[in-house]
């Protein structure tokens, strides 16, 4: 065990150099090309089968010869904007810095630490294969685009097109989002809903001639703030919640007009048995009741739809949502992963994420067992002075390598 620990300690310098290149790439959503090149170059040097798909995802494959399992290691390349530079001081968001055993930089927690941990374990398995080891199934690494806006465009394209086109099935997925070194086995659902309330424009000196969309929207906003008179649903993965995050009014303050349009944006978080469709229907029922009481009340509700353009030029429209999903704490792969990490001396719990991830597509839509694992701290995601403890990342690389060796019955590198 000591020899193995020392082996993964020796990975520290090359990992810092590799992930620092990713941080410097400044991979905002839709601008991940430079980061993708870092992964592509590394796989080229190791002679790993790799390709970039139409959406801009980068995929590497180590082919197996048996009946599985086929394992997907995945995560997103994009990072959120840095925010206030003053809040980052004395650090710079895209100039990585090591200090007191920590690495600072935008995106290191969410989710470059987890993504590169998966990638370094992926490369360790490639070295074992080059030395003569055989895999019973395919091992796939996928660094995807456009996760942060909560539409999962990269993962949707990966699952719908890329993997089927390359004859790649998936039996198990590991997702490197921050998890505090724990195993995430599901998440609350998230959907961004839009309520559009319509009125009739008129001069503000004669409001009786119009229908004020803001006044008509007030009962809707009050109902949202009171959860439509219902108690929140409670589940092991959390509880339901909804909050108004934006209100847009037109014609607006530039003109002396009674507004004829009011758009309310609602962030809805939900847990089973509630579904994304249920979140829409409960609001629609309220809108229908309001119309019965007030014939001048006209409104519609729907999930927010956004059209995105990837750095490759590919365009796609998708709903701004991360549906709830659950692999379950008793799943055989979860238990195997848990026991393997405990055997390494890691303090591991089985948890549920409170935030949205691409597991909504992989597990939520395709029913593929999905497990989240990263040494990065969830509390650091999207924060100024974002950082990770380097020792926790090295433990995560060791953990991923050990789990893959267990799945494929391989000896650990040392």
Structure commentary:
The termini are close together. The chain has helices spanning 2-9, 12-24, 33-45, 85-88, 108-130, 153-165, 213-225, 276-293, 332-343, 359-362, 390-408; strands spanning 49-52, 58-62, 71-76, 97-99, 102-104, 139-144, 172-175, 183-187, 189-198, 202-203, 234-235, 238-239, 241-250, 257-258, 261-270, 298-303, 305-309, 315-319, 321-322, 325-326, 350-353, 370-373, 387-389. With 414 residues, the protein is an alpha+beta fold. The mean pLDDT is 96. The strands form six sheets. Strands 1, 2, 3, 6, 7, 8, 20, 21 and 22 form a nine-stranded mixed β-sheet that branches. Strands 9, 13, 15, 16 and 19 form a five-stranded antiparallel β-sheet that branches. A three-stranded antiparallel β-sheet has the order 4-5-23. α1 packs across α11, α2 (12-24) crosses α5 (108-130) and α9 packs across α11 (390-408). The protein has eleven helices and 23 strands. It is elongated.
Helical fraction: 25-40%
| Low-confidence residue ranges | none
The tally of strands reads: 23
Rg over CA atoms, rounded to whole Å, is 24 Å
Average the pLDDT over all residues and give the rounded result. 96
Beta-strand content bin: 25-35%
Could you say which structural class the secondary elements and strand pairing correspond to? alpha+beta
Main beta-sheet annotation: 9 strands, mixed
Number of helices: 11
Quaternary state of the chains? single chain
The rounded distance between the terminal residues' Cα atoms is 9 Å
Can you tell me the overall shape?
Answer: elongated
């Amino acid at each position: 065990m000591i020899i193995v620990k020392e082996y993964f300690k020796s990975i520290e310098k090359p990992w810092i150099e590799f992930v620092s290149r990713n941080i410097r790439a400044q991979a905002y959503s839709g601008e991940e090309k430079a980061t993708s090149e870092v992964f592509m170059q590394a796989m080229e040097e190791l002679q790993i089968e790799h390709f970039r798909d139409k959406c801009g995802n980068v995929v590497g494959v180590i082919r197996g010869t048996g009946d599985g399992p086929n394992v997907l290691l995945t995560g997103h390349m994009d990072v959120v904007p840095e925010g206030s530079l003053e809040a980052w001081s004395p650090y710079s968001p895209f100039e990585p810095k090591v200090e007191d055993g920590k690495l600072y930089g935008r995106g290191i927690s969410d989710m470059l630490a987890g993504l590169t941990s998966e990638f370094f374990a992926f490369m360790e398995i490639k070295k074992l294969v080059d030395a003569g080891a055989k895999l019973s199934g395919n091992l796939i690494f996928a660094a995807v685009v456009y996760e942060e806006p909560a539409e999962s465009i990269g993962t949707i394209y990966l699952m719908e097109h890329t993997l089927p086109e390359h004859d790649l099935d998936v039996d198990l997925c590991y997702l490197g989002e921050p998890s505090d070194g724990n195993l995430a086995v599901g998440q609350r659902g998230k959907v961004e809903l839009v309520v559009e309330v319509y009125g009739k424009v008129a001069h503000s000196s004669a409001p009786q001639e119009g229908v004020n969309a803001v006044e008509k929207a007030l009962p809707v906003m009050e109902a949202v703030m009171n959860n439509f008179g219902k108690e929140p649903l409670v589940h092991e993965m959390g509880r339901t919640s909804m909050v108004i995050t934006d209100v847009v009014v037109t014609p607006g303050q530039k003109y002396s007009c009674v507004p004829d349009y009011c758009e309310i944006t609602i962030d809805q978080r939900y847990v089973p048995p509630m579904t994304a469709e249920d979140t829409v229907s409960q609001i629609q029922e309220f809108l229908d009741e309001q119309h019965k009481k007030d014939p001048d009340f006209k409104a519609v509700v729907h999930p927010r739809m956004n059209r995105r353009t990837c750095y490759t030029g590919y365009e796609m429209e998708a709903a701004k949502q991360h549906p709830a999903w659950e692999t379950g704490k008793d799943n055989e792969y979860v238990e195997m992963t848990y026991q393997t990490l405990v055997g390494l001396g890691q303090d591991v719990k089985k948890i549920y994420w409170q935030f949205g991830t691409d597991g909504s597509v992989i597990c939520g839509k395709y029913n593929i067992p999905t497990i989240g694992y990263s040494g990065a701290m969830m509390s650091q995601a999207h924060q100024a002075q974002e950082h990770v403890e380097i020792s926790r990342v090295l433990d995560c690389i060791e953990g991923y390598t050990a789990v893959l060796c267990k799945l494929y019955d391989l000896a650990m590198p040392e």
